[in-house]
Design brief:
- This protein is of the alpha+beta class.
- The protein has 3 helices and 3 strands.
Length: 106
């Protein structure tokens, strides 16, 4: 949901990491302490943590200030819902713009 209510729609996003995800398997290897390769991977600053890569900043303000940000918006016209919002990750250096068009069933 947008923090300041500036967008003409609201959206909730819930991300649950599946038990068998790569991130959880790496954490298990690190917790066991007997996998040198896994430890070396983390020591060099790498991670499989999905929160590190997905939706790094909010959609309601320009975090990167690179000129690529656009205000999230949504429009319902007849039976068609269209909306767009920004998407980024930790090392993105900018935004990808997600555009969705959904046709409601009659």
């Amino acid at each position: 949901m947008c923090r300041r209510g500036e967008a003409p729609f609201s959206m909730s996003f819930l991300h649950r990491i599946p038990y068998d995800s790569a991130w959880n398997r790496l954490k298990e290897l690190l917790d066991a302490g007997d996998n040198e390769l896994a430890q070396e991977y983390v020591d060099y600053g790498a991670t499989l943590d999905p929160t590190h890569y997905l939706f790094y900043s909010g959609i309601d303000e320009d975090y990167w200030e690179d000129g690529n940000w656009m205000e999230p918006q949504g429009v319902l016209t007849g039976n068609k819902l269209t909306f767009q919002f920004n998407f980024d990750h930790y090392s993105a250096g900018g935004y990808s713009i997600i555009r969705v068009e959904y046709t409601l069933s009659e």
